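Entry 14. Structure prediction run on the chain below.
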Amino acid sequence: MTDRRTPVPALVRPPRLTPGARVAVVAPSGPVAEDRLQAGLDLLRGWDLDPVAAPHVLDRDPVLGHLAGTDADRAADLQAAWCDPAVDAVICARGGYGAQRVVDLLDWTAMRAAGPKVFLGFSDSTTLHEAFAVRLGLVTLYGPVAAGIDFVKNARAQDHLRATLFTPETVRTLTSTGTALAPGRARGVTLGGCLTLLATGLGTPHSRPGARGGLLMLEDVGERPYRIDRTLTHLLRAGWLDGVAGIALGSWAQCGPYEELRPVLADRLGGLGVPVVEELGFGHCDGALTVPFGIGAVLDAGAGTLTLDAPALA
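Output returned:
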């Protein structure tokens, strides 16, 4: 595992998708609504993909109802999909909670042997993004999920994800709708996801020990400003943000009024001396953009842009 003093490395880009590609939809976290799942599968078919739902994707754990089936079944679905040579991409059905209970049950040696393919998820799947980076060395996509409301109903989210999957060279620049929280321009490798999941992964074997040299993408949902303060303070005290090259902030849905949250973000992140861009349009927001993790990029706070060195997928 990379130590905290080593910069975040660029990772291997999986192949882009082509018409007819088989896509497996799995539920490693929370329970999935059947109508949303069917709508998502129909949308994927409309993109000329061949979606298949994992056997337990509609399960609900009989005791812990916040989980989409037992830990063993959720892990088995994810591993089987990844190791199936006929599958070109694995897409999470939704977020919620549960990926942390699955990540230690996966056979990472077998998954590494399966070779590179696309992994797409967001929110709770942050745990899996970190694990795919650490254990498989692969670029992953942080974006709308197959049974998510944004995926099935928002044209902006759909269009950006579809372009990322099929023609990634057309979406190499993401542009902020906000302002610079801290000025500057920085180069690094993208990483990140949901702030809470990154913090709760500290010290675990499937998470990186730090963000040194990285362009850190952060967002969250349902956390009050004081809880965001507490989590960022934890990352600062743990040294996880030491040497970070720059920070791009996404959405903070249901995290209180932004005029109350913004001073917290400025206070906790402004002292790092790196560019910080806000409102880059990814995460738990309407029309969420798809962000690749593991790609070299330039963050320009003045222009409000994140520009990838290469397309997200090969």
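The first strand starts at residue 22 and ends at 26.
Filed with the rest of this week's runs.
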